[in-house]
């Protein structure tokens, strides 16, 4: 496997990504939007998830496709970001037809970024507006690091962020990942700047530091909130059951790049999406889960690697500490 043209989830044909952020609050929203409705699945491995409309993604549920998938900061407040995305889709006349109305289908997940030094004294929750702005921003470029849902993210001892990566299968099919990294655990090894995801790095995409020395795993001092949430996607046509399997396998990417992962205090969740642009051929269905996990591991390291400092940050960035 090799990275796609831009090494972003938008290498998957039919996907666009939008982001918005509020630097004063230190929070934001990232949305994945399909040019057409997408088949989607989800799998949760963390013990403290925050979600919206994930039940309808089960293979036995009636609605077969979604219009967008939302990743947001803000803990439970951040679920309101989906309202903004729904409003944007409705304004464009998109959604599931029911009773003569169009109802946009927008599952979402949140991470906890309420203790990152930003101002949280709002009177009205900012997340619907951030969601609408993220939807309006959608395109094929993706800013990495301290943007969107990764604006105020933190890992054990560093700033987190938004990361993305892609891979091309032998058949030419494309798999991509997008993630907001806010894990309780470490993304780097021991006391050095080497990433746990180093064995999967492509072309020095997160510094080319190689493999370091493992040490005792460190976690955030305050274990009240964490979470790694992401989307893996492919242009291969999948059923809801196959998309769910892809999301399940992709969690291996979190386990390979965050130590410890899937703790009782993390809300680790992965969405999977298919744009259905090509029929599966060869070993596509066999390889998609593995490719999704590798892309997700790489994306997690890239999110931390590209984070940038802001006034009042309680932890340093990778660049400030190790570059």
Note down, in words, how this protein is organized.
With 323 residues, the protein is an alpha+beta fold. It has one domain (9-322): L-amino peptidase D-ALA esterase/amidase (4-Layer Sandwich), CATH 3.60.70.12. It has helices at 81-91, 127-136, 240-257, 284-305, 318-322; strands spanning 15-22, 27-44, 51-52, 66-72, 96-98, 101-103, 108-110, 161-168, 174-181, 228-236, 269-278. The strands form two sheets. Strands 1, 2, 3, 4, 7, 8, 9, 10 and 11 form a nine-stranded mixed β-sheet that branches. Strand 10, helix 3 and strand 11 (269-278) form a beta-alpha-beta unit. Helix 1 crosses helix 2 and helix 3 (240-257) packs across helix 4 (284-305). The protein is globular. The two termini are 28 Å apart. The mean pLDDT is 95.
